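Title: Comparing notes on inverse folding

I've been comparing how different people in this forum approach sequence design from structure. To keep things fair, I'm posting one structure and asking everyone to reply with a full sequence. Here's the target:
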């Protein structure tokens, strides 16, 4: 398993870049006349940056609400619908409370796509809010990510994305990934950000990953009040996942893994993480497990240290003589690994294996 430091350094190289061109956005209206000059919309700035293939550009987005109103969904060139990014780019807002990118409930908001000409692109998004993405199933894969999709396309090239001080809010996906969908050959680092009140009809109310070459790093952030109809109210993970100083709370799912569902080669490392007040099987029909964490399949792994997994809920009914209720953890695959110094509210269903460090505290033993 990769250490959290390996995953951190995998993304650090993206945070310092010199820019070939800077495009200041001058209006909040969503227009697309083909030029970005003194009269430049956000869409026009992205189109201009995409056209300068092979160089890293910057877009400065002042305070304001930028509502996407041009065209329909399921278009992949940024001419209408969502904002498709196909080249290395940094987007900088004036603050998450000041610069609002609004999908207008018409399409996802951002689609960070594989380049057709470059082995990798690097995209950074800072200091803004991404909200009101409304995603239907357009038939492409992966179909999810109402707020943002990272790594879409079939060219096999790498997409590396960093988001700093970003709020991803009130997005809704008809498939997976209410907030973010991560595809093959892609990485994302989330720092000092909030992913909240997003919904998915599939898996991963906040974040969903595919099975493939992916790295997800989340630091100093909050994932709360998201919901999914299948599994993983918070995070649906099949990638290399590192979480440090993160709170996962008040997420819910009709299925398993209210806070986090780890499966299918997913490798997770959690340090200083609080997973609390999440709900699995929120409709109480005995079709879910693991209110805080659910680990599925023998080839997945999750290592937890100095963290709290407590006060979560499994809405399943306890059958006579069969303890089916696993509020904090549910495991049907590989046991969870512990680095010690954890607090688990109820360890029923957790299947912990001590790897190193001091013993964990359980319930009233704290």
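Reply #1:
Here's my take.
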């Amino acid at each position: 398993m990769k250490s959290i430091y390996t995953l951190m350094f995998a993304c650090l190289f993206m945070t310092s870049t010199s820019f070939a061109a800077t495009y200041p956005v001058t209006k909040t209206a969503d227009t697309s006349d083909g030029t970005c000059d003194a009269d430049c919309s956000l869409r026009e700035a992205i189109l201009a940056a995409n056209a300068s293939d092979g160089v890293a550009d910057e877009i400065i987005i002042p305070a304001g609400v930028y509502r996407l109103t041009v065209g329909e969904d399921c278009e992949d060139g940024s001419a209408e619908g969502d904002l498709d990014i196909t080249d290395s780019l940094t987007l900088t807002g004036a603050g998450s409370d000041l610069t609002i990118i609004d999908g207008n409930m018409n399409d996802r908001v951002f689609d960070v796509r594989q380049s057709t000409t470059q082995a990798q692109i690097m995209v950074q998004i800072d200091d803004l809010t991404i909200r009101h993405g409304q995603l239907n199933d357009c038939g492409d894969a992966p179909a999810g990510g109402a707020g943002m999709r990272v790594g879409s396309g079939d060219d096999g090239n790498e997409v590396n994305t960093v988001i700093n001080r970003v709020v991803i809010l009130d997005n809704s996906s008809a498939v997976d990934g209410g907030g973010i969908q991560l595809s093959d050959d892609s990485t994302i680092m989330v720092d000092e950000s909030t992913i909240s009140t997003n919904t998915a009809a599939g898996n991963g109310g906040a974040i969903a990953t595919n099975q493939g070459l992916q790295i997800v790093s989340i630091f100093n952030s909050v994932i709360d009040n998201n919901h999914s109809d299948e599994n993983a109210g918070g995070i649906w993970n099949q990638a290399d996942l590192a979480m440090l100083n993160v709170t996962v709370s008040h997420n819910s799912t009709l299925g398993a893994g209210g806070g986090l569902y780890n499966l299918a080669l997913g490798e997770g490392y959690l340090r200083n993480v609080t997973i609390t007040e999440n709900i699995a099987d929120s409709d109480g029909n005995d079709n879910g497990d693991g209110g805080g964490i659910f680990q599925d399949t023998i080839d997945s792994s999750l290592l937890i240290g100095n963290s709290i997994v407590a006060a979560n809920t499994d809405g399943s009914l306890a059958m006579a003589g069969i303890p089916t209720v696993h509020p904090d953890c549910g495991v049907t695959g590989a046991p969870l690994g512990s680095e010690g110094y954890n607090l688990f509210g109820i360890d029923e269903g957790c299947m912990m294996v001590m790897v190193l460090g001091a013993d964990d505290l359980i319930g009233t033993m704290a």
